[in-house]
Fold:
Amino acid sequence: MALASSCMPELPETETIARDVDRAISGAIIVSVRVTRPDVLREASARELSRRVKGARIERSWRRAKLIVTDLSTGDRLLVQPRFTGALIVNDGSLNPALLAYSTVRFALDDGRALHYCDVRRLGTVALMDEARFASYTGNLGVEPLDQSFTPAQLSVVLRASGQAIKKLLMDQRKIAGIGNIYANEALWRARVDPSREARSLTAGETRALHKAIVSVLNESIEARGTSFRDYRDTRGERGRFAERLQVYGREGQPCARCGARLIGTHAIDGRATTFCARCQS
Structure:
């Protein structure tokens, strides 16, 4: 069962991965580890990784920002950042061996299955951290936009403190965790906010609209199991379905679904592809 493959996954994609991994392997015990490509490892060598996780029970898997976090009974945590071509694959022995050709780390489980981290380009990472290191590592990450603590008032505090372009601020993981280029574009279109506006210039009404747009677009994408363009696949090996619902991202030159004006594309705001409607988002 392929659990994930992603092209720079954002919050909805990593949330989907984490939920799938949690359902698949929680409660299993790691009996051995084989590292074939140690360059994907962070924080621990292959030998230390094997020593510390052997015999550990997998308690749960969850998401923090764009990371898949797996809690172990030892108190350690495995952190996987898939980036472009990373994939978590659970093999019960029935998979085509070709799917595991790019396995970099293999965790053998007590029920006979194995969890593989596969990565064609090896740009993703697998890290092992104790509780204190995890707290330090994630301490600079911003608020989770799907947490109850993320309110319009809290978003307003973040915006008022910044003179950056609002799109750039939304993608700053130190301020708000998990939002990348796709969903920043989409949320700003939904909220009718110009991506180049200074964050602190948004009114109270615009801030409420943006908050609603962020939460709604992220939740809707999770329901659709993410956005696929090239690599991302869900647990069934299928593409995430949210790509067909995108209103601006990847649609430069096409008509705005709201007003019909031609969508504009630029890289001037933050060096990333930004698509917006100059009529609706003025």
